[in-house]
Please model this.
Amino acid sequence: MNAMPRPRPLHLRHETTRHGEKVWYVRRGEGPRIRLREPFGSKAFWAEYEKAVRGHAPDVEARKAQTTGSLGWLIDSYMASAQWTTELSAATRAQRAGILKETKEAAGHESADRINKLSIQKGMDKRAAQPHGANNWLKTMRGLFGWAVALDIVPADPTRSVKLLAGANDRNGFHTWTEEEVAQFEARHKVGTRERLALDILLYTGLRRGDAARLGRPHVRNGVIRIMTEKTEQEVTIRILPPLAASIAAAPIGELTFIATEKGRPYTKESFGNWFRDVCAEMGLPGRAHGLRKAGARRAAENGATEAELNAWFGWAEGSRESATYVRGANRTKLAARIADRYSEISDAAPPTQVRRR
Model:
């Protein structure tokens, strides 16, 4: 940062806001104040100052969105905070950055402390046609205002009592593939096809679609996959099971990634998900890429995997709700099967009875 020239340049003034932030502006006599946005002392700052002295104010709407205490200012402050950069994964930041940008463009000029429950509910109502999109927006707003409340920037969290919308997948999330659906896919797409390779990687590694799309030779050594997951930024270690090894050996693969386009190029997370969705839809299957991760977790739990083992394989944090859910589900399935077996034993042992006809 450059020091202030002496004497201070004409018409350049500053003040400290109630949040302790020093702001600079240009004001000629009793004329309007022109706020300077660039970092103080930088070349961009002095270029902005020269324009302001000549009477060229920044774009009015942009100025509104950046006013201290506005929603736009709050969003900028949040995205520059340690919580944003250290507590959110890169994938979550990428998703929420788009949502925050859209919100800033639509309502960045509004005062942050005037955003209330009704404002948030209207935002949800506006997005009601896309429940999952609306819920992602609400979760993003919760992160923003939770951070702001913790620092006493706003008096209350307006998202606190606003409920998530119910969608087709909200009870259990994405549809979990059944064994019958897996068998149907395997019958249609044999080992050696790109489609079967995609299914096998998703099913036998449990990777999310973005990680599955970038999985390749650099991640494999001595038959073991080691990859840093995009969402949780945790390294997972996955042994390549025989069915997956056979599928990789037989299918056309790319130079950098196992799953590749027909031209051998890597997929992006989105393009891979869309391609695999179309493959499934063509067969009339309701499952998608993420549903195979869930099917793999279910298989593992039903074969005795513990919560700790599931966390290690699927990249969930210790104490994860996801792994606990699969273990509980597997235990309930086993208990129900035991009861059925006992009833069968009682039924086989009991003598036949006559049912009186009326």
Summary: Residues 17 and 181 are 61 Å apart (CA to CA). The first strand starts at residue 12 and ends at 16. Strands lie at 12-16, 22-26, 34-36, 220-221, 224-228, 235-239. Residues 59-65 have pLDDT under 50 and may be disordered.
